[in-house]
Amino acid sequence: MGAGREFDHGMTDRGIALLLADAAEGVEIGAAPTQAVIRGGRRRRARRWAVAAATALVVVGSSGALAVTALPGGGGQRVAPATQVPASRTPGVAEPVARHLLAVGVDQGRTWQVDIDVWPAPRDATEARALLAAMAAYGEYPADADEPSALVGRSAYFVRHGIGEAEADGTLTTEATTTGADRMTGTDIETVAVPLDPTTQGPQRLVIGHVATTARQVTCTWKDGTTTEVPRATGSDVDSDDQVIRTVEGSPYAWFVCLAPQGTAFESARVTQ
Amino acid sequence: MGDRKQAGDEEFRAFVVGRWPRLMRTAFLLAGEQHAAEDLVQSTLERVYVAWRKVAAADDPEAYVRRVMINAHARRHRRRLREFLAPRDDSGIVREVADTGDRISQAEDRGVLLKALAQLPPRQRQAVVLRYWEDLTETQAAEAMGCSVGAVKSNAAKGIAKLRAIPELSGTVMVGGRK
After folding, report:
1. Tell me: the pLDDT tens digits for A176-194?
2. Does A165 touch chain B (CB under 8 A)?
3. Which of residues 105-164 of A touch B (CB under 8 A)?
4. Which of UniProt's keywords are assigned here (chain A) (predicted)?
5. Which fold has domain B2-170?
6. How far is CA A187 from the centre of its chain?
7. pLDDT bucket at B45, cuts 50 / 70 / 90
8. Residue ranges covered by each domain of chain B
9. Sheet harboring A155-163: ordered strands across?
10. With contacts defined as CB-CB under 8 Å, which chain B residues touch A114?
């Protein structure tokens, strides 16, 4: 570090902004490769139409029956649907999503619910294409896998929550793709805090998070200083309505939900056991 | 038809030239490395080109571009997670070769920050970069990240807390001004 500096050990937000601005200066800004970008864009456009023209895909349901579905945006150019499962595919790999209930409760007379949809990891681009089409039929689009090849080997999850009449449909709260290598360990935790009613900008009372599968207790702390402890589900309460840490088949994480009392909101959450 | 396409390409070209430096800086903070930043910006702009007519007509084309870049970053990060999170020396992250005291110090500081950013989970890194470098509001950052405002707050707060916990970083900021 340079001489004569005066240090701000608290590191303010402005300090962070200054550090980022300084680090950003470290990149070399060459001439914009406009021609290469346009060429690349044209290639992508051509590829997109090629994919759209071959949208008829076979999805194998749990019954083994064949269903034909399609990616959106076909633009009227369709080819004859494939009618045979490729020999390399194990029947059932593109089974409909496994939907798990993460939590359910009643708040001011209205029932709320949090669900997670977990899709299996496809083994190749063909399976991935079928899965993306099946997801699209559920209105689910993995943001980080807009091309089939990006989904290969990755399981996708979509967490939804809803309240009242919209409970069944739910609103997408968070989604991502994972592999088995994405496991969390120790006290790792990731949370999302949102208003219980997704149609409002109310206080962030609903906390949805994931932790290591070994975590035994999560403690959510609310803005008013009170806390809520979420224990690990045991055999007797796996199917109960209690808010517990749940293992979700197909997900490398364990999941939990906690709801702040009326009048307060999310402050923090950590693994406490 | 051909004229319209050509005009669209010209407009897009001007957009790319105008936005390239800023996009490169944001991408550098997200990707942590020069070549990865160039790849990220280029693939982002290729996607923007595909939807250029829609983007050009939008009230806020920047918001669309940011959303595309964040999605592309998330996708790349997941592919290269192990590579970026693995302990490494500065050679892959910081390209400057410092030859004087100040330049060495500056490069070291940048290296510490880039390394610290690289160790944040991608959503936290995105939230920090969008809020504190791009200077977006929480709502704008939420739009770019495709998540709730609460998720932005949570990710930014966690990311900042982790950066603050790094002693080398908390010692590099001067009170009230540039380093």
Report:
1. 888 878 888 888 888 888 8
2. no
3. 143-146, 150, 154
4. Membrane, Transmembrane, Transmembrane helix
5. Butyryl-CoA Dehydrogenase, subunit A; domain 3 (1.20.140)
6. 20
7. very high
8. 2-170
9. A98-107, A110-119, A155-163, A171-178
10. none
